[in-house]
Design goal:
This protein has about 170 residues and is α+β, with helices and mostly antiparallel strands. It is built from four helices and seven strands. It is about 35% helix and about 30% strand.
Length: about 170
């Protein structure tokens, strides 16, 4: 994305992914979720698989990754991908907001990017999953109109219960 000469250099920019972004997103997930939530190294491994799958099967008509930047610095990201098993269903993946950008509504803006794109692409619903301890993320999804459709135990990341959420259009 190109800014004009008169553009505010501190303004928030949303752009699509480019080479190197998916590796950086994986790295930031590994660091932030370990520090903030005590998630183990296998969480980063799983995020790297999600990132690799996105790159391997990327469909620019039906899928997108947004990178949020301020002052040319990464401050967050999210991806919307096709659900591999459910027709007309998208998945929100890889949502992360850097600490210095929290409380500014960036998470809401990133999720709204997904909702708007999903509607334009013709999806009938969006699903996502999160962990019950991620209170801010859960609040963000609820405020966007998502509803919990399933809660289940999971052992992979320290036994925190996993929730699946859905938004229908």
């Amino acid at each position: 994305m190109v800014q004009s000469k008169n553009a505010d250099p501190t303004a928030l920019i949303f752009r699509t992914h480019r080479p190197g972004d998916m590796g950086f997103i994986t790295y930031r997930h590994g660091v932030i979720y370990a520090q903030d939530h005590g998630l183990p190294a296998n969480f980063e491994r799983d995020v790297s698989r999600i990132s690799a799958d996105f790159l391997d099967t990327y469909d620019p008509i039906m899928e997108r990754c947004w990178i949020a930047e301020r002052d040319d610095k990464f401050i967050g990201s999210v991806a919307l991908v096709k659900h591999k098993e459910l027709e007309n269903t998208a998945l929100i993946r890889l949502l992360i907001v850097e600490r210095e950008a929290r409380g500014l509504g960036l998470g809401t803006k990133l999720v709204q990017q997904c909702i708007d794109f999903a509607r334009e692409a013709g999806y009938k619903r969006i699903r996502l999953w999160t962990l019950t301890q991620l209170v801010s993320a859960r609040r963000l999804y609820k405020n966007a109109g998502f509803q919990i459709i399933r809660t289940e135990p999971q052992e992979s990341w320290g036994g925190m219960p996993k929730e699946e959420w859905e938004l229908n259009f």
